[in-house]
Amino acid sequence: MSCLEQQEEEIEVLESIYDGDENFKKVNTTTYQYKYGADGDHRSFMIEIKWGENYPESSPDINLDLFYNKHILEEVKTTIMSHLKQQVEDLLGTCMTYSLFDSVKDNLDSLISDQPDTPTVIQIEKVDHGVTSPEDAPKKKEKKEQLTKAQKRRIMDKFGSETDRPRGWDWVDVVKHLSQTGGKHS
Predict the structure, then answer these.
(1) What per-residue confidence (pLDDT) applies to 121?
(2) Which residues neighbour 120 within 8 Å (Cβ) at sequence distance 6 or greater?
(3) Pick from 100, 92, 38: which is nearest to 64 by CA?
(4) How many CB atoms lie within 10 A of CB 104?
């Protein structure tokens, strides 16, 4: 069986296995992604497997450097990649995409054991560029908010220019006024 025939067969198998699985994504006919963990979870990550022309006789390209994985520590990525490379060596010559995704799922806890549950804050040192005092620092101009004519008109005319003002719009609450000023005592 040629590599192309094996790839076509594996595509059918993957589509039947992962039918309805939201974590599985077919990017194109040779690239597949699988997400482990829930969205927003700091321990979730995504694996991308891309087949070459001679796959499964040659190993696929495995990618963890996806934007989705920006929060994953490099040590954890290295652990996952070494696990996957070991699996690829064992499965070379056979259709292995499902086996690779499943192997990670089975060993998920041990593979991401070094990944913290909560995001870590990385302290970045401030680099001094020779500015010694605040007077030497370049001053920023404060930019005033620019309003359009329509916005200014709306602010000035709260009740609308076409309509009459409601009865009593400028009345003063006498009781409230007297309670604040303390009326005259006779």
Answers:
(1) 56
(2) none
(3) 100
(4) 19
What does the buried/exposed string (b/e) look like for 168-179 if buried means 16 or more CB atoms within 10 Å of the residue's CB?
eeeeeeeeeeee
Q: How confident is the model at residue 48 (pLDDT cuts 50, 70, 90)?
A: very high
What pLDDT does 158 receive? 66
Tell me which of 30-34, 91-95, 172-176 is least confident. Answer: 172-176
For residue range 115-132, what is the model confidence (pLDDT) as tens digits?
Answer: 777 766 555 566 655 555
Report phi then psi at 33, rounded to 5: -125, 145
Taking the C-alpha atoms of residue 81 and residue 19, their distance in angstroms, rounded to an integer, is 26
Whether the CB-CB separation of 67 and 48 falls below 8 Å is answered with no
- Type of residue numbered 159: F
Sign of the C-alpha dihedral computed for residues 104, 82, 46 and 95 taken in this order? negative
Tally of CB atoms within 10 A around 46? 18
pLDDT of residue 94: 87
**Calpha distance 97→32 (Å, rounded):** 8
The residues, ordered by sequence, that sit 6+ positions from 136 with a Cβ below 8 Å of its Cβ are: none
Dihedral sign (CA 19, 20, 21, 25): positive
pLDDT for 54 beyond 70 = yes
Interacting residues of 85 by C-beta distance below 8 A, sequence separation 6+ = 62
